[in-house]
Fold these 4 entries.
Entry 1:
Amino acid sequence: MDIGINEKDRKAIANGLSKLLADTYTLYLTTHNFHWNVTGPMFNTLHIMFMTQYTELWNAVDPIAERIRALDSMAPGSYKQFQNLTSLPDAPSSPPKAIEMIKILVKGHETVAKTARSIFAIASKADDQPTADLLTQRLDIHEKTAWMLRSMLEK
């Protein structure tokens, strides 16, 4: 394979993207879980907001996985692989109250942003513009979503 990025850098970028994929999928599952199980006075607002968020996350996993493949690596795709790669905890076994759901999702989006940011330096150094562009888009979405969720926690 000769795309102008050496094998070592391609592997390092793909490994980072695999962690981003695992984080994104884990956050997707948690957000979808909260969409199903939210209760309380903010039900309608959160139910709709969580649906918008999990839909965005679902649409993000394919481009991340396809970028891993374009770099000539295999994309992880099992729960076990995601569990080993993710920086996020699994969703709580018992659904928490709505405010706790929001707090968990804020932390989740901040964590995924940190994961994306951690890959940026190697992608930039390797002159990997497609990965840098993907990471920039993901950072914008996760930072903006965390801000919106944090805004709901203000009294």
Entry 2:
Amino acid sequence: MNIKNQFFWVAAFLGLVLDQITKYWVVQAMELNDSIPVVDGVFHFTYVTNTGAAFSLFSESGGWLRWLSLGVSLGLMALAWFGPVMNRWEQAGYGFILGGALGNGIDRFAAGEVVDFLEFRLVRFPVFNLADVFINIGIICLLIAVFYNPPRSNGPRSSGKTEK
């Protein structure tokens, strides 16, 4: 059986599984607000929850975000299933975005909040999770897809010489 846009589905599955496994580990191994230094003062595993979007935006009224995650996820799946065959960069980009949207969407539907645990203290960046990482990797892949146009094959290549 040949599945269209196979790399999309692999990227989405990988992103979702890695996100959910790491969040499960954090919830099982840590108490809320615990912090484990990986590189002290630079990078920590810090268990927090977030009811909002990226960087806690819309935390007070973030209930609609679960529906946004669901809509984005369904739209991306429809694109991969019913849309054209995409190049590898597009498949990876949309797939990783789907994995991240599903990962955070599952959290929002199951608990009403997202588990975050990756904290870069050196730059005082907000705590985030692997779903957020995969969404950003997906965006980077899509930007590469926009600027990278592989040569299309139109049959045998000519040497530039004309035959007489």
Entry 3:
Amino acid sequence: MTGTTRVIVGLSGSLSSLAALYHAVGEAARHEAVLVPVAAWTASERDGLRPLSELEHAARRRLDIAFEQAYGGYPAGLVIHPLVVNAEPGPALVGAVTGPADLLVLGAATRRRLDRLRHGSVARHCRHRASCPVVEVSPSALLTRLELPARTGAPLPLLGRV
């Protein structure tokens, strides 16, 4: 990925998105790129009369929680430009891309087939529309990194420095 200037990562709060975050932070550090974590949100019927500012705040909180879970807070030594977007996840992520030097990192889909048929695949949307490379990270990649420390009692790698 020589020349990567921005690493964009979608964060939904799922285990897959935590795996994507861990991968994206590593890529951003390795290439001295700006990290752009994205939380997309939209108002739905189940949100009822909640104010839009409350929904936006919840999305911003999702970013904070993801970094807290993965690193104990925002990692030092990286330039991070969080982005909270009122849009569906696919268009929000593609909209964050500024050019071919960016890298878009996504958690691999784990939703049931019926949900994907009804709502579409974020990864498919991004692969077909993004003007930069797209990487999908499986939650098993994260679980693999955690397995040995969990068995040996060693510190978890996510809580260490980048």
Entry 4:
Amino acid sequence: MIFLSRAARVAVLVLLVIPISVVLAASPAAAEPRKGTQAKAAAQARRMLARLKVARPLSISGYRRKRFQPRWAHHKGACDTRETVLARDGRRVRRNAACHPVKGVWYSPYDGRRLKSEKQVDVDHVVPLAYAWRSGAKRWSQAKRRAFANDLRRPELLTVSHSANIAKGGQGPQSWRPQRRAYWCRYASSWITVKHHYRLFVTRREKAALNNMLRTC
């Protein structure tokens, strides 16, 4: 048996305690940037939401998906918008000569699922095309609607699971929200950012739902 002097035992205890203390002290600090970033984004989203016009939804009459998106637009070479988003949002994505993803891993923030097949994922329009139509896009030109449907600069396009995309359909935040509550802040901020950029209006119920979701930030 090895006997340690009192000084040696104290030194060992200090070495054991210090790392634990550092971790405990660092944890809140590590979480602060994320909270700070979310709070900042939420504050900006609230300002943008306050500027949006509140109105009753327009009629769905005349809406057809082809009025926004006869097909995905091409961006670089053979890659269209959908393929570009799947490559952006996935990990270890492999594409064939035609730019179509044949392998990869995708995370669906709506429901927290990790998917390993391109057949299991969809590229979601955060503000659905039919919803945008009733929010003012009905009055747009064909070119502007096409630009909206293929927008890679705003947070309008997102890779999600096929099942989550089907469940959402063309609904707004007053009727449908991501299954993961942890994503509500990001979802509401993205929705507002898109509507603000394109000057689409909101309904009273939609605005209330967005404000409620921003409270999770």
